[in-house]
Amino acid sequence: MSLRIGITGAGGRMGQTLVQALDQTGNSMALAAALERPGSSLLGADAGELGGVGANGILLGSDVDLALRAVDVLVDFSSVAATLAHVAACRAHGKALVIGTTGFSPEELADIDAAAVDIPICKASNFSTGVNLCFRLVAEAARVLGDEVDVEVIEAHHRHKVDAPSGTALSLGHEAAAALGRDLRDDAVYHREGQTGARRPGSIGFSTVRGGDIVGDHTVLFAGDGERIEITHKASSRLAFARGALRAAAWLAAQPPGLYDMQDVLGLRPKEESP
Ligand SMILES: NC(=O)C1=CN([C@@H]2O[C@H](COP(=O)(O)OP(=O)(O)OC[C@H]3O[C@@H](n4cnc5c(N)ncnc54)[C@H](OP(=O)(O)O)[C@@H]3O)[C@@H](O)[C@H]2O)C=CC1
Ligand SMILES: O=C(O)C1=N[C@H](C(=O)O)C[C@H](O)C1
């Protein structure tokens, strides 16, 4: 039997791409519900037509309880407020949840942690395989290069993105900081303007570019004396994220309650971090 997938934000950029990716999975998965914001002009539209894969009879709705009764796993790339509401709904219904939304505050992340006591949740700032490999490469580079180099994270996204730095940039910064035995909360520098003074040793700087239709570029720069290394990932299609999220959904359906990420799905989590 096909795994029944629900998609939230089904009319959005990632929602439509998820519908396309799902259409390519054959019989292993099926779209069972598509959710949009209450009051959205897209309510009642056919999710397949919106996603450009032809009508599939799944109409966009806003009744979360009705949708959750029809699905095995909910895949949520929407907004912070919507995702937090979906976390509570999935917890009440005992349904697994894949979260791609970024931009949560520490308090909001704690709410997600708490829900994962009762349901399986896979949350990742980036579901592409390439970026998840870069997380490991960045950690290894930071370990080898140590405090000899300055670490800077540079990211670029489309003009519609509402959070900064990107979730992926923060994860890359966290990987570098953790590998250096530091804490990103102490070391991150998000703004530089005017008479900043010389670079603070050990700081991890973030630079954000927003424009056009850039899908998502990330570079971690390790700048030393006489040489520098750059680890770069460039996404050219949202299908890279959508396929990863569906892979996570299939994996998550067989997991007990807990909070997972794409490193778990891909088997990339370093042994020292495994439970
Ligand atoms: N982890 C990853 O790999 C990736 C994460 N992302 C993240 O995913 C999120 C969405 O990105 P993107 O698709 O570009 O954004 P979009 O704005 O294109 O899509 C979000 C969709 O969610 C809808 N929405 C808002 N509220 C609700 C609600 N209560 N119920 C259901 N749907 C709702 C929005 O509707 P409306 O416009 O009417 O408000 C919109 O259609 C962002 O946080 C982004 O950072 C993106 C790509 C990859
Ligand atoms: O909003 C986006 O588009 C993306 N958001 C994610 C993030 O914040 O890192 C992932 C990807 O880069 C695209």
TrEMBL record:
> Where along this sequence does the record place binding of NAD(+)?
9-14, 36, 100-102, 124-127
User: What keywords appear on the UniProt entry?
Assistant: Amino-acid biosynthesis, Cytoplasm, Diaminopimelate biosynthesis, Lysine biosynthesis, NAD, NADP, Oxidoreductase
What's one GO BP annotation on this UniProt entry?
A: lysine biosynthetic process via diaminopimelate
Q: PROSITE patterns, from UniProt?
A: DAPB
Which EC numbers does the record give? 1.17.1.8
Q: At which positions is (S)-2,3,4,5-tetrahydrodipicolinate bound?
A: 158, 167-168
- Boundaries of each Dihydrodipicolinate reductase C-terminal domain copy? 130-266
| InterPro entries reported for this sequence | DapB_C, DapB_N, DapB_N_CS, DHDPR_bac, NAD(P)-bd_dom_sf
Reactions it catalyzes: (S)-2,3,4,5-tetrahydrodipicolinate + NAD(+) + H2O = (2S,4S)-4-hydroxy-2,3,4,5-tetrahydrodipicolinate + NADH + H(+); (S)-2,3,4,5-tetrahydrodipicolinate + NADP(+) + H2O = (2S,4S)-4-hydroxy-2,3,4,5-tetrahydrodipicolinate + NADPH + H(+)
List residues of the Dihydrodipicolinate reductase N-terminal domain. 4-127
In which compartments does the protein localize? Cytoplasm
Which HAMAP family does its entry note? Answer: DapB (MF_00102)
Protein name per Swiss-Prot or TrEMBL: 4-hydroxy-tetrahydrodipicolinate reductase
